[in-house]
Amino acid sequence: MTAKDAREELREQIFEVLNEVAGSILANQKIEADTEFPETGMSSIEYLAFIEKIETRLDVFIDLEENQDLTTVDKFCDLLLKEVPSA
After folding, report:
1. How far apart are CA 6 and CA 4, in angstroms?
2. Are 37 and 47 in contact (CB under 8 A)?
3. What does the pLDDT average to over 29-45?
4. pTM for the full predicted model
5. Which of 30, 50, 65, 77 stands 20 to 30 A from 15 (CA)?
6. Residues 55, 71: contact at Cβ < 8 Å?
7. Tell me: the pLDDT tens digits for 1-28?
């Protein structure tokens, strides 16, 4: 699998989790990989649920104190591909 394929697969997984957590908010919006989560109306509780589901699904730990800029799908991809090459 190429790096591009791995990124696309990871991006799809992140979008799936995002939809599970905040689907009702996101249903009427077109969310791109670079859309800032705060612009979507996602609450902090939904964001934390999103982080928890990402950690569970991908078996990773995301340190929010060190990674306070995780505000888009692409930023999650960047972090996860760097921290977990097999993601």
Report:
1. 5
2. yes
3. 88
4. 0.84
5. 65
6. no
7. 787 888 899 999 999 999 888 877 777 7
3-83: which CATH number, 1.10.1200.10, 1.20.210.10, 3.40.50.300, 2.40.50.140?
1.10.1200.10
Tokens read off for 70: 């995780």
For residue 46 the two structure tokens come to: 């939904």
Phi, psi of 41 (to 5 degrees): 90, 10
Task: Report the distance separating Cα 23 and Cα 28, nearest Å.
Answer: 9
74-82 contact pairs (CB < 8 A, 24+): 74/11, 74/33, 74/34, 76/14, 77/7, 77/10, 77/11, 77/14, 77/33, 80/10, 80/54, 81/3, 81/6, 81/7, 81/10
| pLDDT at residue number 84 | 67
* pLDDT tens for each residue of 50-63: 999 999 999 999 99
